[in-house]
C-alpha cells in the first residue's frame, strides 16, 4: 500500500530536517538541515574572519623579533618576544655586526646584547698599524717600508743608496778634483764630475786665471780662451829702446844729466847748468895749457 510522503524529508539532500549534515563551510560547526531543506551551520566562534584563521592557529605577525606566533583570543596574530633579540641593536644574539673597532674581526652580537669582535691578530698595537700596512722606518736608505710579521716597520734597502758615500745615485757630491764640475754620484757609486771646459791642462790653470807669460813687456797676464797665457802690451814699454818710460838711459849727450826715457819714448836728459855752450866748457874748467916743447933732436 502506498504511504503519505514525510514533509521533513529533503529529497535534494536525501536527509530529513534536523539531520546533521555538512555545509562545506569550515568556518561553521553543528551543521543541520533546516526547515528549508538547507544544510547550514553555526558560525565558529574561534574563527577569525580578518585573518581567515582560527584562534590557536599558527600565523606570522611579521615581527622578526618574535617566535611561536599564534592567533590569540582577540583574533590577533601575536608571537612571543625572542629572548635572543637585542632591541638596542635591532639584531639577534649571534648576528654579525660592526663594533666600530677597526682592530677587531668577526664582530658578532654576544649574550649581553653587545657587538664585540675578536682582536685582529694582524694588528700591531705598538705601531697602531696592521701587518702589511705601509709605514715609515725613519731610515732614508730604505723604500717600500711595511709592517712585517713581527710588528716591525721594515723597508727594503734602496738600490740607489751608496753606503760608502752615504749618498744616493744622482746626488750632488764633491770628487775633490778642482778641474771638474757638476760632480754627481754615478751608477757605480762613485763621485765623478765632468771635466771643466775652462781648465787648461798644459798650464794647470783655468781660463781667466792670472798667469805669467814671461814677457816683461806685458801686464795683466791671464789665460785666454785658447789656453794660452797672454798679457796686454805695457803702454810704458818703448820697443825702440827696450826700456820703459821713466827708465834711466843715456842720450849720449855729455852736456845733460839724469837721462830718462820720456813719454815719447825718447831718451832725454836735463841740460847741465854747469855747461857753458859758448865755451863748450863747464864752469870750473881752466884754459887750455900750452904744449911743452919736446926734447932736442
Describe this structure in words.
There is one protein chain. With 297 residues, the chain is mainly beta. Among the domains are: 9-44, no CATH class; 124-158, no CATH class; 167-196, no CATH class; 203-234, no CATH class; 238-286, no CATH class. 0% of the residues lie in helices and 37% in strands. It has a two-stranded antiparallel ribbon with strand order 1-2. The protein is rod-shaped. The mean pLDDT is 93.
Give the low-pLDDT segments: none
Q: With helices defined by DSSP (H or I, 4 residues minimum), what is the helix count?
A: 0
Order of helices and strands: EEEEEEEEEEEEEEEEEEEEEEEEEEEEEE
Count of extended strands? 30
Shape: rod-shaped
Largest sheet: 2 strands, antiparallel
Q: Which structural category fits the helices and strands?
A: mainly beta
Would you tell me the overall average pLDDT?
A: 93
Fraction of residues in H or I helices? under 10%
**How big is the Rg?**
67 Å
Beginning-to-end CA distance, first to last residue = 248 Å
Order of strands, widest sheet: 1-2
Residue share in β-strands? 35-45%
Amino acid at each position: 500500500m502506498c504511504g503519505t510522503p514525510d514533509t521533513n524529508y529533503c529529497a535534494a539532500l536525501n536527509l530529513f530536517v534536523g539531520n546533521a549534515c555538512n555545509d562545506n563551510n569550515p568556518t561553521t560547526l553543528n551543521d543541520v538541515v533546516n526547515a528549508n531543506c538547507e544544510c547550514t551551520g553555526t558560525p565558529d566562534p574561534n574563527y577569525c574572519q580578518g585573518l581567515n584563521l582560527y584562534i590557536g592557529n599558527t600565523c606570522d605577525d611579521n615581527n622578526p623579533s618574535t617566535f611561536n606566533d599564534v592567533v590569540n583570543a582577540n583574533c590577533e596574530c601575536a608571537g612571543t618576544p625572542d629572548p635572543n633579540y637585542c632591541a638596542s641593536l635591532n639584531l639577534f644574539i649571534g648576528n654579525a655586526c660592526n663594533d666600530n673597532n677597526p682592530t677587531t674581526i668577526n664582530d658578532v652580537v654576544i649574550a649581553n646584547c653587545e657587538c664585540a669582535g675578536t682582536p685582529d691578530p694582524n694588528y700591531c698595537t705598538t705601531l697602531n698599524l696592521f701587518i702589511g700596512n705601509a709605514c715609515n722606518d725613519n731610515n732614508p736608505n730604505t723604500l717600500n717600508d711595511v709592517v712585517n710579521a713581527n710588528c716591525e716597520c721594515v723597508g727594503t734597502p734602496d738600490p740607489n743608496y751608496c753606503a760608502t758615500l752615504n749618498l744616493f745615485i744622482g746626488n750632488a757630491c764633491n770628487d775633490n778634483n778642482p778641474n771638474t764640475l757638476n760632480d754627481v754620484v754615478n751608477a757605480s757609486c762613485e763621485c765623478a764630475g765632468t771635466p771643466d771646459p775652462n781648465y787648461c791642462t798644459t798650464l794647470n790653470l783655468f781660463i781667466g786665471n792670472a798667469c805669467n807669460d814671461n814677457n816683461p813687456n806685458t801686464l795683466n797676464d791671464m789665460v785666454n780662451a785658447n789656453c794660452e797665457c797672454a798679457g796686454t802690451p805695457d803702454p810704458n814699454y818703448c820697443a825702440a829702446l827696450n826700456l820703459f818710460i821713466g827708465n834711466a838711459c843715456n842720450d849720449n849727450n855729455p852736456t845733460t844729466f839724469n837721462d830718462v826715457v820720456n813719454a815719447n819714448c825718447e831718451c832725454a836728459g836735463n841740460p847741465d847748468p854747469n855747461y857753458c855752450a859758448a865755451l863748450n866748457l863747464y864752469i870750473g874748467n881752466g884754459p887750455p895749457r900750452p904744449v911743452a916743447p919736446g926734447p932736442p933732436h
